[in-house]
Each structure stands twice: as structure tokens, then as C-alpha cells.
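Hello again, I could really use a second opinion on something today. I've dropped the whole record in just underneath, so have a look.
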Amino acid sequence: MRKLSLLVIILILAVALVGCGGKTEPGDKPAAEPKQEKIVLKVGHAMPESHHFQKGLEKFKELVAAKSNGQVDVEVFASGVLGGTRDRVEAVKLGTADMELVGSPDLARWVDQALIFDMPYLITTYEQADAIMDGEIGQTIKKLSEDKGFKLLEFGENGFRNAFNKYRPINTLKDIEGLKLRVYPSAAYTDTFTALKALPMSTDWGELYTALSQGAVDGAEATEAHFISNKFYEADQKYFSNTRHMYVPVVFIMNKAKFDKYSTEIQTAIQDAAVEAMKYQRQVSRDDTANLVKEMQAKGVEVNDVAELDSFKAATIHIWDKYADKIGKDLLEKAK
């Protein structure tokens, strides 16, 4: 019995000591908080590091690090080093890639409503572009993208696309007729340039410089930033004409399942940083345009506004009707 009583006393003392174990005495070090695991996200794009895509993504990297208190680290890869654009978009959808910044036509392969940006001469001003991207239409496309496995964080800017070639300035429909022009690999682009009586070519973007240099194509269509950053002026391209046939956003996409697994705080940091960075990127793109035109001219490229632009619009307006059912007639009417 005496042994049993002694054992009971020892147990009581042990419990008392354990109960006091959480008390911090003067000079004791507080227990270390569990270390948060750093999140590393890789994002790529197809343009060189001098392009405004890179500037926008570097701004995102800076902002998301600040908004997440250093928990999210972003690695930016330019010039398609992570893979071809189409492959990367599919990889984001499947979750084998984190993020990508790509032109809206690549999203339109999965989300029909994004074809609204492929309609020729639908958007003719930056104000119209912003109203569509930031308004109800943009929100609809974001929601539909989620159904396909994409978290469309925000729209950025690719810009107004224009035609360039080695033979002559384009001022009339006769000037563009018969030119072999590399166009964005999209049915709507092919339809547009077929309607203009050019010869649309499907040359891969990565092979375009060589194709231009060797005369396999006469020219192409792209933005001022694309033209300068890829040095097409060195590939015998002497004439850049402001056809402004499409306004193309870029879409900053992330794998939806990966985004959803993060805490609310991290999701908010990523989303807010993306919105702020893409607004910054749009403005950089617009501010750069005038300087890029001067740079083209300094390189010996003749830049011109199209004299008979209304005839280009009239020749392509029927394409809106062709894609109306696919885009959704209501959505297209709202855009108009």
C-alpha cells in the first residue's frame, strides 16, 4: 500500500509538471513557429526579354512577393524556353505547368467565347478594348475559362496587329492582294486575310525570321513590339502598314486546380498582383508604341496609315456573322 501511495504521488507531481510546461519563464526562448513552405511558380512567354510581356511578368514577380510577405517566388522565362506556346497552354490546363502569358487566340482553342477578340475591326480603340476586357464580357470569359481548367487571372495587352511586307506599303485592297503573309494560326485570321485576297500562310512563329529572310513568305502581321523585338527589319521587311485589323489581348493564365489548393491569403496575393501587373503591362505597351514606330523608321522601315481602311473593314465584316454562333450572339452584340 505504501508503494502504491508513493506511485500515486509521483504521478500527481508528473501531471502538475506537465501542466506547468507551457509556462514561459523569464529568459526562456519562445517556441519557434512552424516555417511556411515557399511557393515557387514558373511562368513563361514567347517573346524576348526586351518585350513588354517580360516587363509585365517582372512586375508581377515583384508584387506577389510583397503581397505574400515573400512566400510566393515567381520565376520568369522568356523566348519560349519552357516550350512552344500551344504546348504550354495545354500544360497549364493539365497542371504540368504553373502559368503562362499568351495571346487570346491560344485560349480560344478551349474557350470559344475568346474568339471575340479575333473578329476583324471589332475593336478599334484602346478604350473599347479596356471596356470589353474589364467589363461583363471579360468576366464571362474568365468564368468559362475556369470550366476548362484555367484560372484566367487577368487580361494584358498584345496590341493592335498590323501587316508588314518587303514589296510595298499597303494603302488599298489592291496593295495587299496576292501577298504571302504569315498570319496567326487561327481560322478567323485565315478567313480575314483570305477575304482581303492575301495568301495567308501558317509558318511557325519560331521559323518566321528565316522564312522572311529566305523569301518563303513576303511578310506577316504582328504588333510593333513583335516587329522590333524580333528584328524583322533585318529580314528584308521594309514596309509596315497600320492595318490594325485586330486588337489582341494576352491572357495571364494559371492552372485552376493549383490556384484552388492555396490558402485564401495566397490566392488573394496572386490575384491582386496579377491584376495590378497586367494594368501596368498594358500601359507600358501603349507608351512604347510611339517610340517603337520611331525605332522602325530609324531602321529604314517605312510606316504608313492605310489610306482606304474603310474598304478593309467592309471586306471582312461578314466574318462576324460566321463566328456569331460559336462566340454567342448575345456576347457579340454586347461587344458591338
Q: What stands out?
A: The chain is about 50% helix and 20% strand. The longest strand covers residues 239-255. Residues 1-25 have pLDDT under 50 and may be disordered.
